[in-house]
């Protein structure tokens, strides 16, 4: 009798590899340590093994899995699966076609299929519920385990596309596990982010090889994974206090600015060259400390400084390894990262670069102009002509829809800048539950607009948008008394109010630059948001 399909728990799926276990351990001992500490499904994956050895190993692991009442899957080798009476098989796109696999293994055994592209889901749906029971979605991140991978890593965003395709084709029967480069440092955010765009479908589990098989303490590693998967939310910044449905009051905003002055956050800038000097001065004006560092070896230390915050602006970019290390360091330290994906998809190079940044970190806030946010939301097919594209005559309701969609997709606060700034809070959908969606849809997200009328001279100086990024980073980094959403709203309103004030005082674009810094200084030292000439409104 094979394991009943409807009882399979996909949450922690261990795939073996006999080439990597540390000295003093065996494949058997590693699998047993996993089973004792929360592994719920096992796959034997032997790529270079004589059949006789595969069978011997299979028989031993078969007994072990039966002892722990966990189903056993065999990779690639359908003959071995049948011979040792495994509960199922896993095949990839280049392995035996699924209809033939089903013909051989019969209706009751589990069939898993590797899916690397959303388009592959169509085929799965055409076969219908009698064929594929679950899919391995990947590769999510780079991995050394799979030799000569044919696909490049898809990141959580690729997995979301696969979940969306399953929803589109109504493939309700098909379970999903993510695979490839998954470790405790990225699993929480993969689970947190990987929800279909309609909020209805999340992953059913995590599948991995090296994190357990190569571990010197496989029991401990499995336990860490089990605890992470059992957790229900991913707290990636300490001030992610849940927002209420109310708008921040002027008192809340004053409190945020005063708290920032007290805490003096360190704002590490990885930003474009044009922004360097202006961004540093804006940060100082806000009672925060800028550091314009792109030194990979110090990102870990910087991220541990109290109230440290990272602003990542991709206008010109530091070496990608430095960026990845910085993202990891700030995420590990649970310190906020503000992302400004400059010219998001204006060239193929920028698209790849920005998508890489998005795939390697969890952001507290993503800030972009309308073209950037529309392309992030996939709502604009027209490629941006230049990185300074403006939103002046763009339909506000479209921008609100796009801002909410991006906030939901990246589970972050999103700012779409323009004459009217739009801010949406995707962080409240931060609770995750395996298999279930978020119980939320993008339309439900809290969203506000911030309006102060046109400030045309903003467009006449360079790096004004980038310095809004510095302002957001200062406020989300320095404030720990209010929600992330409130801090971002306050930063946007403060920057707009300062821009208006500066525009009335300047003689031209040169003095506007200086006046803007002065105005930010003034408004954050004599704090009185009741006097700001901006309007914050809730938006549906
Ligand atoms: C759970 C899971 N997902 C994906 C794979 C990869 O299968 P495949 O693409 O056939 O590659 P190989 O594992 O055969 O190298 C998997 N094994 N398990
Ligand atoms: C078998 C497989 N298929 C896609 S990635 C992968 C290997 C994943 O290994 P690891 O968990 O060590 O990155
Ligand atoms: Mg295979």
From TrEMBL:
<comment type="similarity">
    <text>In the N-terminal section; belongs to the thiamine-phosphate synthase family.</text>
</comment>
<dbReference type="Pfam" id="PF02581">
    <property type="entry name" value="TMP-TENI"/>
</dbReference>
<keyword id="KW-0808">Transferase</keyword>
<dbReference type="GO" id="GO:0000287">
    <property type="term" value="F:magnesium ion binding"/>
</dbReference>
<feature type="domain" description="Thiamine phosphate synthase/TenI">
    <location>
        <begin position="12"/>
        <end position="212"/>
    </location>
</feature>
<dbReference type="InterPro" id="IPR000417">
    <property type="entry name" value="Hyethyz_kinase"/>
</dbReference>
<dbReference type="GO" id="GO:0004417">
    <property type="term" value="F:hydroxyethylthiazole kinase activity"/>
</dbReference>
<dbReference type="GO" id="GO:0004789">
    <property type="term" value="F:thiamine-phosphate diphosphorylase activity"/>
</dbReference>
<dbReference type="InterPro" id="IPR034291">
    <property type="entry name" value="TMP_synthase"/>
</dbReference>
<dbReference type="InterPro" id="IPR036206">
    <property type="entry name" value="ThiamineP_synth_sf"/>
</dbReference>
<comment type="pathway">
    <text>Cofactor biosynthesis; thiamine diphosphate biosynthesis; thiamine phosphate from 4-amino-2-methyl-5-diphosphomethylpyrimidine and 4-methyl-5-(2-phosphoethyl)-thiazole: step 1/1.</text>
</comment>
<keyword id="KW-0460">Magnesium</keyword>
<dbReference type="Pfam" id="PF02110">
    <property type="entry name" value="HK"/>
</dbReference>
<comment type="function">
    <text>Condenses 4-methyl-5-(beta-hydroxyethyl)thiazole monophosphate (THZ-P) and 2-methyl-4-amino-5-hydroxymethyl pyrimidine pyrophosphate (HMP-PP) to form thiamine monophosphate (TMP).</text>
</comment>
<dbReference type="GO" id="GO:0009229">
    <property type="term" value="P:thiamine diphosphate biosynthetic process"/>
</dbReference>
<keyword id="KW-0784">Thiamine biosynthesis</keyword>
<dbReference type="GO" id="GO:0009228">
    <property type="term" value="P:thiamine biosynthetic process"/>
</dbReference>
<keyword id="KW-0067">ATP-binding</keyword>
<dbReference type="InterPro" id="IPR022998">
    <property type="entry name" value="ThiamineP_synth_TenI"/>
</dbReference>
<comment type="pathway">
    <text>Cofactor biosynthesis; thiamine diphosphate biosynthesis; 4-methyl-5-(2-phosphoethyl)-thiazole from 5-(2-hydroxyethyl)-4-methylthiazole: step 1/1.</text>
</comment>
<keyword id="KW-0479">Metal-binding</keyword>
<dbReference type="InterPro" id="IPR029056">
    <property type="entry name" value="Ribokinase-like"/>
</dbReference>
<keyword id="KW-0418">Kinase</keyword>
<dbReference type="GO" id="GO:0005829">
    <property type="term" value="C:cytosol"/>
</dbReference>
<dbReference type="GO" id="GO:0005524">
    <property type="term" value="F:ATP binding"/>
</dbReference>
<dbReference type="InterPro" id="IPR013785">
    <property type="entry name" value="Aldolase_TIM"/>
</dbReference>
<keyword id="KW-0547">Nucleotide-binding</keyword>
<comment type="similarity">
    <text>In the C-terminal section; belongs to the Thz kinase family.</text>
</comment>
<protein>
    <recommendedName>
        <fullName>Thiamine phosphate synthase/TenI domain-containing protein</fullName>
    </recommendedName>
</protein>
